[in-house]
Design a protein that fits this description.
By secondary structure, the protein is α+β, with helices and mostly antiparallel strands. The protein contains 11 helices and 7 strands.
């Protein structure tokens, strides 16, 4: 029997089974523990069913407390680096649930004990001891729930990082062999490694986008052309990845207008161009960083405009980016000879890149 899906799968059936199994075991544990104290003066069967009823009635409070930690405090505060707020709220939740459990012991538990024939608990005059006991038990339960959640999250994160490193090594091998030139993908993989340290909570969504980019590089980049819808979808995925990586520091606007979804385009033209623009903006020391991308396709004529802000005191591109732009221009002339126009217009506070391609022209093989 493979228990991996039961432990790690996000499928609703597996999740329900996993949580149900956990709380059933939880109830059985506390039922056995309580039965042992009842069985000293009462029949075993009566003690067991009384303990089972008592534990089952009280377990919803444990569920709410534990889930408030693993589904609220951890993702909202711990995973975002808000450690002080998390500790303070944890204490607030603990005090609140100690009061709830104490009220349960005072007003509901006696009726449960009477109904099951068990002795009614006596109210202790030592409130401090009762409070400390409940506080310690609650936080033991909360820490156990958090430990399970963090252990599971850490394992998944490590598996994903190992996969990224493996795929990155595979891509680097292909680059050395001259099979692909996914400059944008290498940059994306580097960003994911950085995000895994700074913002681990976003990794699951990012991994999905990286998978799509990997498939694009491994398979589509080696084809003469790809569908325009595929290219646009991957472009949107990459830009979403950049939005996550820049964490709101860059204002990104993307507009796509396509009237011919059957058109095809050579791969590794638009994505590396957009990736290079993000590298440009990231290198600038300005407060407001903007990238506006507009793509229009009508009658197999593709028009792409990229407008990005830059410091007023810069008038030339970085040497590395100059080389990349030149390589893109060479690739365009090779694939779309006499059927493309690639221009870079530098203004005082902005950089405008325009690209026009006649996708209906014969692509060089």
């Amino acid at each position: 029997m493979n228990i991996y899906p039961l432990v790690f799968s996000n499928n609703s059936t597996y999740r329900l089974a996993r949580h149900s199994l956990f709380w059933i075991l939880w109830i059985l544990y506390y039922t056995v523990f309580t039965t042992m104290s009842f069985a000293e003066n009462h029949p075993l069967s009566q003690s067991f069913f009384a303990a089972l009823a008592e534990t089952t009635i009280s377990v919803p409070m444990d569920i709410i407390f534990c889930y408030s930690i693993i589904y609220f405090l951890l993702p909202v505060f711990l995973f975002r680096g808000k450690y002080i707020q998390m500790v303070l709220l944890w204490l607030v939740f603990s005090f609140l649930f100690v009061i709830i459990f104490h009220l349960y012991s005072l007003y509901l538990l006696p009726y449960i004990r009477e109904a099951t024939g068990m002795p009614v608990p006596k109210n202790s005059s030592k409130f401090a001891w009762v409070f400390f006991s409940l506080f310690a038990q609650l936080n033991m339960e909360g820490c156990m729930a958090a430990a399970i959640k963090l252990g599971k999250t850490g394992y998944i994160k490590q598996q994903e990082l190992d996969l990224i490193k493996k795929e990155k090594l595979n891509i680097e091998t292909q680059i050395k062999a001259g099979e692909v030139q996914p400059v944008f993908l290498m940059s994306a993989l580097d960003k994911v490694e950085l995000l895994s340290i700074e913002k681990p909570s976003v990794i699951p969504g990012v991994i999905k986008k990286i998978k799509h980019l990997l498939l694009y590089v491994i398979y589509d980049c080696n084809q003469p052309s790809v569908g325009i819808e595929t290219e646009m979808k991957l472009l949107e995925e990459y830009i979403e990845l950049e939005k996550i990586a820049t964490n709101g520091k860059v204002n990104i606007n993307l507009k796509i207008f396509i009237n011919n979804k059957t058109s095809r385009i050579a791969p590794s033209i638009l994505l590396p161009l957009v990736e290079n623009c993000f590298k440009q903006v990231d290198s600038y020391k300005i407060l407001k960083k903007n990238i506006d991308i507009e793509i229009r396709l009508a009658d197999d004529i593709l028009l792409m405009n990229i407008l990005l802000t830059k410091p007023a005191d810069t008038s030339t591109l970085l040497n590395a980016e100059n080389v990349l732009f030149k390589n893109i221009s060479k690739r365009l002339n090779l694939l779309y000879p006499q059927s493309n126009a690639f221009k870079i217009i530098i203004k005082p506070e902005m950089l405008l890149i325009t690209l026009t391609i006649n996708l209906g022209a014969v692509i060089s093989k």
